[in-house]
Design a protein that fits this description.
Layout: H1 8-14, H2 18-44, H3 48-64, H4 68-81, H5 89-105
Helix pairs in contact: 1-2, 2-3, 2-5, 3-4, 4-5
């Protein structure tokens, strides 16, 4: 069964403040877009160390959206990239697509 993202953690942080929640989600959207662009660029250029660093940053956003299995995959992928191993690339990019679709609707 595929994991579903959740705003539970963001809701908890915001404590019912709708304006703060909107601001936080807007920041989240901007950051994730920039980080995914960086991920794609570094991966395309074969810079696996930089790609790994971006995957690490993205893993925190995966965790914020309560994707526990996705977080584990991201952490493993981060380690693999340091050895130029891309075996979890498809799984990781599937997680990114799920996150983007979810956060665009938020």
């Amino acid at each position: 069964m595929e994991e579903k993202p959740s705003l539970d953690y963001i809701n908890q942080i915001c404590g019912g403040d709708a304006h703060f929640k909107k601001d936080l989600i807007d920041i989240f959207k901007r950051e994730i877009s920039k980080e995914i662009e960086s991920y794609q660029l570094y991966l395309k250029n074969g810079n696996y160390l930089k790609t790994s660093e971006v995957v690490h940053k993205l893993s925190h956003k995966i965790k914020i959206l309560d994707l526990k299995n996705g977080f584990k995959i991201a952490e493993k992928y981060c380690i693999q990239l340091k050895d130029s191993n891309q075996s979890l690339k498809i799984d990781f990019e599937r997680i990114l697509a799920t996150m983007l679709l979810f956060i665009k609707k938020a």
